[in-house]
Amino acid sequence: MAKTSANYELMYIIDLDKGEEEISAIVGKFKTLIEANGTLNELEEMGRRKLAYLINDKPDGYYVLARFQSAPEFPAELDRVLKITDGVMRSLITVIGE
């Protein structure tokens, strides 16, 4: 039997050079996208954090963690949008065990 939905966790890092307003816009964009395609269980803006290693010669980034439930097809589309969004430095989507 095919799965109709699963629980996921998304962590992404936004470039601090974007400024407060644009960071808020990016967070809002992904919050809206997740809510339109699933159920957003938790959104935690972890804020400015030091990176483990330099990304694009930058030592810091703005971390955001989202936990959501959606159909198994949605994370691939979400990942595609994250990769083409200007300002997103890194992202990772994982399935949360049952």
Automatic annotation (TrEMBL):
GO terms for biological process: translation. The keyword rRNA-binding applies. The keyword rRNA-binding applies. CDD domains: bS6. GO terms for molecular function: small ribosomal subunit rRNA binding; structural constituent of ribosome. Pfam families: Ribosomal_S6 (PF01250). Binds together with bS18 to 16S ribosomal RNA. Belongs to the bacterial ribosomal protein bS6 family. This is Small ribosomal subunit protein bS6.
